[in-house]
Design a protein that fits this description.
It is a single chain. This protein is an alpha/beta fold. The chain has 3 domains: 96 residues, MurE/MurF, N-terminal domain (Udp-n-acetylmuramoylalanyl-d-glutamate--2,6- Diaminopimelate Ligase, Chain: A, domain 1, 3-Layer(aba) Sandwich); 226 residues, Mur-like, catalytic domain (UDP-N-acetylmuramoyl-L-alanine:D-glutamate ligase, 3-Layer(aba) Sandwich), CATH 3.40.1190.10; 153 residues, Protein-Tyrosine Phosphatase, Chain A (Alpha-Beta Complex), CATH 3.90.190.20. It has 16 helices and 26 strands. The strands form 6 sheets. An 8-stranded mixed sheet has the order 11-10-9-12-8-13-14-15, sandwiched between helices. Strands 19-20-24-21-22-23 form a 6-stranded mixed sheet, sandwiched between helices. The longest helix is centred in the middle third of the chain and has 16 residues. The model has no long low-confidence stretch (mean pLDDT 93). It is found in: Cytoplasm. It is an enzyme of class 6 (ligase). Its EC number is 6.3.2.13. One of its GO terms (biological process) is peptidoglycan biosynthetic process. It catalyses: UDP-N-acetyl-alpha-D-muramoyl-L-alanyl-D-glutamate + meso-2,6-diaminopimelate + ATP = UDP-N-acetyl-alpha-D-muramoyl-L-alanyl-gamma-D-glutamyl-meso-2,6-diaminopimelate + ADP + phosphate + H(+).
Length: 496
């Protein structure tokens, strides 16, 4: 498949220096991935400038450069240059054109917010599957095409990768695609040129302020998905002030909005909730109608996720009855309040959850406490080279448990002990925690602390099967490690 420069830039202001009929065989934004007859995008980043890698891309066979300023290279006489105002936006525009706008061929549901995105995408997928639709999922756990899971490196891929993924989903016959849309992706216009059927907002809490710096900037990045650049039907949780502001903006713009939340003014809200150990029963009011929903997920925060997914499914045209029936057969989401299964019967319960923000940790602990009459211990840490301002707040949030073990998460290139010191700074004066930097030993210590009937929550990594220490990615799965430690603690002793 090839397209000419002129075709790819149709509808976008640019200056083509050279051959506008140059055939383009592929798109590259890393010079080491460029190949013969590729178009290379010189992306201006915060750390490096892609213009510096133009020669390397040409040496590897690229014949078209997309630049924000003309580059003068000795070996570029036969290379076409396309000068644009914003190379990132140009890359997204070209990628959508190159793959023939695949998102127009299915119903794309984009879900943004700090917490709840992954579970909500899985809920939407399950509901759509139950309605007989073929589905795709894009997000943190991985990408799924018609039920087949693939590993992913980013919550929301870079635009060429995203449009290629959309094209694969289109070619596989997907009717609905549920996608997590991160604030980074919106700010970096990775989704530019995509066509959404529904966009949904879950919540906004402390995270990513190392990138966005202020809550206002963080919110405005999320709000882009609800702007005129992304027309769609909307689903907005109005339990928080940020959601209510988003609802106000969308209402003023004349968008079709379904509101959700525990707030009784929301169009979808719970009238009564019964939390059980393995399921939740919710009497929902849905646009003035009462409907009972039973599903095998636990916790108050999953009520929020279910309401958001319910709204998305309604916006896709499914009936409330069909949605309720589908939710009854929902499978657990990997690493989201997932109970650890061990080869022995243990007198304690161990759960793994992805909670890595103060709000998510608070909600996860509260959910475990609601399920458990006895004590709760939480094992947690914070990632390195990420928002450091949330670390003491995470420490404070963890004190809601009866006991806490502070450990390493993914320290990356930071000193694990320095990260832990930041966390412990928020736990000043408390005596219901201790520090164990080694994550396996921390999990073992929590299990050893627990008495019959107690519960242990291992937070922060969820589905991840690795730990990043320095520049190394080590094999480490909280679920597997916890199962091993349960077996070590409660396995049958050999008889003499």
């Amino acid at each position: 498949m090839t397209k000419t420069c002129a075709e790819l830039f149709q509808g976008m202001e640019c200056t083509i220096i050279g051959n506008g009929d140059e055939e383009v065989a592929g798109l590259a934004f890393r010079s080491d991935c460029a190949g013969p007859h590729d178009m290379f995008f010189c992306i201006v980043g915060n750390v490096v400038d892609g213009h510096s890698f133009a020669q390397d891309a040409i040496d590897r066979g690229a014949t078209v450069l997309v630049v924000e300023r003309k580059v003068y290279l000795a070996d570029a006489t036969d290379v076409t240059e396309v000068v644009v105002a914003d190379s990132r936006k140009a890359m997204a525009h070209v990628a959508a054109n190159f793959y023939d706008h695949p998102s127009r061929d299915f119903s794309l549901v984009g879900i943004t917010g700090t917490n709840g995105k992954t579970t909500t995408t899985y809920l939407v997928e399950h509901i759509a599957n139950a309605a007989g639709k073929r589905c795709g999922v894009i997000g943190t756990v991985g990408n799924k095409i018609a039920g087949v899971l693939e590993r992913s490196d980013h919550t929301t891929p870079e635009s060429p990768d995203l449009q290629q993924l959309f094209a694969r989903m289109r070619d596989a016959g997907c009717d609905v695609v549920a996608m997590e849309v991160s604030s980074h992706a919106l700010d970096l216009v990775r989704t530019w040129g995509s066509t959404f059927a529904v966009t949904a907002f879950t919540n906004l809490t402390q995270d990513h302020l190392d990138y966005h710096h202020t809550f206002d900037d963080y919110f405005e990045a999320k709000a882009l998905l609800f702007s005129r650049d992304y027309p769609a039907r909307r689903v907005i949780s109005i339990d928080g002030a940020w959601g209510r502001e988003l609802w106000r903006r969308c209402s003023e713009a004349g968008d079709e909005v379904i509101t959700t939340g525990f707030d009784t003014t929301a169009q979808i809200h719970p009238v009564d909730v019964t939390y059980e150990a393995a399921r939740t029963i919710v009497d929902l009011e849905v646009r003035g109608r009462r409907i009972t929903v039973t599903y095998p997920l636990v916790g108050r925060f999953n009520v929020e996720n279910v309401m958001t997914a319910f709204g998305c499914a309604l916006q896709l045209g499914l009936s409330a009855e069909a949605i309720a029936d589908a939710l009854a057969t929902m499978e657990p989401v990997p690493g989201r309040l997932e109970r650890v299964a061990a080869a022995v019967e243990a007198p304690i319960s161990v759960y793994v959850d992805y909670a890595h923000t103060p709000d998510a940790l608070t909600k996860a602990i509260a959910s475990i406490k609601a399920l458990n009459d006895q004590r709760t211990c939480v094992v947690f840490g914070c990632g390195g080279n990420r928002d450091a301002t949330k670390r003491p707040i995470m420490g404070q949030a963890a004190l809601a448990a009866d006991y806490a073990v502070v450990t390493s998460d993914n320290p990356r290139r930071e000193d694990p002990l320095a990260i832990i010191d930041d966390i412990v700074g928020g736990m000043d004066g408390a005596d219901n925690f201790f520090v164990e930097p080694d994550r396996r030993r921390a999990i073992a210590a929590a299990i050893a602390w627990a008495e019959p009937g107690d519960a242990v929550l291992i937070a922060g990594k969820g589905h991840e099967d690795y730990q990043i220490v320095g520049t190394e990615t080590l094999s480490f799965d909280d679920r597997k490690v916890a199962a091993e430690e349960l077996e070590r603690a409660f396995g049958l002793k050999e008889q003499d």
